[in-house]
């Protein structure tokens, strides 16, 4: 399931580029608000979210300066009730803080999900990252040119599938083909996100995926790669190759 969230801000509002942790906080605060008001346990679910989409903006002093009042944001999760809780929480709050920036919540709507084929093309709505433990308790981020980048994405989707369904998919085959022409055109295809003081490297690159429709669907709803709940790995359909 996928949620489109709409905010209103004043023209000229300045937004720092490193806002991922603020968006994570908005999700946490929204679910906490519902849990507090209804005396229910705070819901937990696999989820991911996109970067912010401003209808018009300029860049000044390392910040985005909004040229309009409209901001869109997308949240995705295989759990429909989790998204409903976020909408309830945002409705209760009315306003949210993106760091020091005040945004007014105006509306949200559930989007129809696409039909999934065994071969599809996606573009990124937030960077895809693959992390693994390195020495000294640090994390090391895999290069998209590395031998195991695609395989690690596949293994991660199998793990997510098992968490959701308590079983393994019938078809575990999946191959990734990242757009080499796009990478050649971009001088810096990677993105380095400062997540509340922690640097996370990811990639915003179109790609084709072939194989298990079950795993492709999990990637669409829960995110591809790691750190999805920090705003990594969200994609949208570029076109259905067999549609």
TrEMBL record:
One of its GO terms (biological process) is defense response to virus. InterPro entries: Cas_Cas6_C (IPR049435), CRISPR-assoc_prot_Cas6 (IPR010156), CRISPR-assoc_prot_Cas6_N_sf (IPR045747). It comes from the Bacteria. Gene3D superfamilies: 3.30.70.1890, 3.30.70.1900. Residues 113-237 form the CRISPR associated protein Cas6 C-terminal domain. GO terms for molecular function: hydrolase activity, acting on ester bonds; RNA binding. Keywords: Antiviral defense, RNA-binding. CRISPR (clustered regularly interspaced short palindromic repeat), is an adaptive immune system that provides protection against mobile genetic elements (viruses, transposable elements and conjugative plasmids). CRISPR clusters contain sequences complementary to antecedent mobile elements and target invading nucleic acids. CRISPR clusters are transcribed and processed into CRISPR RNA (crRNA). NCBIfam families: cas_cas6 (TIGR01877). Belongs to the CRISPR-associated protein Cas6/Cse3/CasE family. This is CRISPR-associated endoribonuclease. It comes from Proteinivorax hydrogeniformans.
């Amino acid at each position: 399931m996928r949620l489109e969230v709409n905010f209103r801000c004043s023209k000229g509002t300045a937004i720092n580029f490193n806002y991922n942790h603020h968006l994570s906080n908005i999700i946490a605060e929204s679910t906490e608000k519902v849990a507090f008001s209804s005396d229910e346990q705070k819901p937990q679910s696999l989820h991911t979210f996109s970067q912010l989409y401003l209808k018009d903006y300029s860049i000044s002093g390392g910040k985005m300066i909004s040229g309009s009042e409209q901001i869109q944001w997308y949240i995705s999760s295989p759990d429909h009730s989790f998204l409903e809780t976020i909408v309830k929480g945002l409705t209760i709050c009315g306003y949210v803080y993106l760091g020091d920036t005040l945004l007014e919540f105006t509306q949200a709507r559930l989007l129809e999900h696409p039909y999934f084929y065994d071969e599809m093309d996606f573009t990124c709505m937030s960077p895809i990252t693959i992390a693994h433990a390195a020495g000294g308790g640090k994390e090391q981020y895999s290069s998209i040119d590395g031998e195991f980048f695609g395989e690690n994405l596949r293994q991660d989707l199998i793990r997510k599938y098992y968490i959701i369904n308590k079983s393994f998919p019938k078809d575990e085959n999946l191959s990734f083909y990242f757009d080499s022409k796009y990478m050649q055109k971009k001088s810096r295809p990677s993105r380095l996100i400062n997540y509340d003081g922690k640097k996370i490297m990811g990639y915003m690159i179109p790609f084709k995926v072939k194989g298990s429709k079950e795993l492709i669907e999990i990637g669409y709803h829960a995110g591809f790669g790691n750190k999805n709940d920090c705003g990594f790995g969200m994609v949208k359909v570029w076109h259905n190759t067999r549609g």
